[in-house]
Automatic annotation (TrEMBL):
Residue ranges annotated for the Transposase MuDR plant domain, each copy included: 84-128
Top-level taxonomy: Eukaryota, Viridiplantae, Streptophyta, Embryophyta, Tracheophyta
Pfam families in the cross-refs: DBD_Tnp_Mut (PF03108), MULE (PF10551)
UniProt biased composition (Basic and acidic residues): 22-42
Region of interest called Disordered, as start-end residue ranges on this chain: 1-56
UniProt-listed PANTHER family: MUDR FAMILY TRANSPOSASE (PTHR31973:SF195), POLYPROTEIN, PUTATIVE-RELATED (PTHR31973)
Domain MULE transposase per the UniProt entry, residue ranges: 273-314
Origin superkingdom: Eukaryota
Protein name as annotated: Transposase MuDR plant domain-containing protein
């Protein structure tokens, strides 16, 4: 409060007045300023409280890899409202913790409890989301006392999802990253050899996290082609479905064809010959991609139209 008063000395109001001089108008003004100053101070203190109640940004960006060396069990760590982050932190911490394993005792929207898989070990982590809180608080941590004599063949906490999160950037930067390299990477980081199938599943999950599932890609195809033709007037596309024999209410994408107006326009400057070629698709659903191409007077190849078909045969070639 004093700071605010000092900021507004008497002289600042225009008139030269000696301190202590009693002039009714000035006294009245001073009282009014005092009241205003009080209001300002109250507003400021409220604002400060707001700032204090906010979760510091470093809590949500906590570097989980350092949890092992920062084992201050009296410290309550706090995580954002997203429980996935908390689970990931506990899982990462546990995996770094000399290959100990834990099981989830309770996982609800408000509480997350885990304990060691061995009954004689006191390890536990208790975390909760307070009623009015926007972050999770880890309020209790007991450490492992168990000793692993032999490696279990399956580490229950090193799940394919966990591995997928861990290797995400490696896979996204290099989709050709082999499952064997994933096994070695996990072994380096966690001193544990995961199985080949888990490494393979983790890679598939990472690819899906980044680029979506195969199912979603096929599901989105008609929508994408429709948008493509809307944005490129006079373009054309066609989708062919068939009904699933086991469940006729479900339709399955059989073929897709599309041609852009720009390609049609360009064809008039090409030689009057169209070549059709196909290449097989290597994704989960196989199939073939057909392309119609032309060549101009300068022998430059111009793609004209594209089709996705079940295989390269007479029927699909004719349809194309
Ligand atoms: Zn334990």
């Amino acid at each position: 409060m004093s700071k605010v008063k000092e900021a507004k000395p008497f002289g600042s109001q225009g008139g030269e007045v000696d301190e202590g001089e009693e002039i009714p108008r000035l006294v009245e003004q001073m009282q009014r300023e005092d009241t205003e100053a009080d209001v300002h101070v109250d507003e400021d203190s409220d604002h400060e409280d707001d700032t204090l109640n906010q979760v510091p940004s470093q809590w949500t960006n906590y570097d989980h890899s350092q949890l092992l060396v920062n084992e201050g069990e009296t410290v309550a760590w706090e995580y954002s409202e997203n429980q996935i982050e908390l689970k990931d932190a506990v899982q990462r911490w546990s995996a770094k913790c000399l290959r100990k394993e834990f099981r989830v005792v309770k996982s609800s929207p408000q509480v997350y409890d885990v304990k060691c898989i061995r009954d004689d070990c006191p390890f536990k982590v208790h975390a909760y989301l307070g009623k009015y809180d926007t972050f999770w608080t880890v309020s209790r941590i007991e450490h492992h006392t168990c000793i692993i004599e032999e490696l279990e063949s399956q580490h229950r906490n090193l799940t394919a999802d966990f591995v997928a999160q861990h290797i995400y950037s490696k896979i996204v930067n290099n989709p050709g990253y082999e499952p064997k390299a994933i096994i070695n990477s996990i072994d380096d980081d966690f001193q544990y050899k995961i199985s080949y199938s888990k490494a393979y599943r983790a890679k598939q999950k990472t690819l899906e996290m980044r680029w979506g599932t195969y199912e979603a890609s096929y599901h989105n195809l008609p929508c994408v082609l429709n948008t493509l033709c809307e944005r490129n007037p006079s373009s054309y596309f066609e989708i062919k479905h068939f009904n699933l024999p086991q469940d006729p209410t479900k339709r399955v994408l059989q073929r897709a064809f599309f041609v852009l107006r720009a390609c049609i326009n360009a064809f008039q400057y090409c030689r009057p010959v169209i070549c059709i070629d196909g290449t097989f698709l290597t994704g989960r659903y196989k199939g073939t991609m057909l392309t119609a191409i032309a060549a101009d007077g300068n022998n430059q190849v111009l793609p004209l139209a594209f089709a996705f078909v079940e295989s390269e045969n007479g029927d699909t070639g004719t349809g194309f």
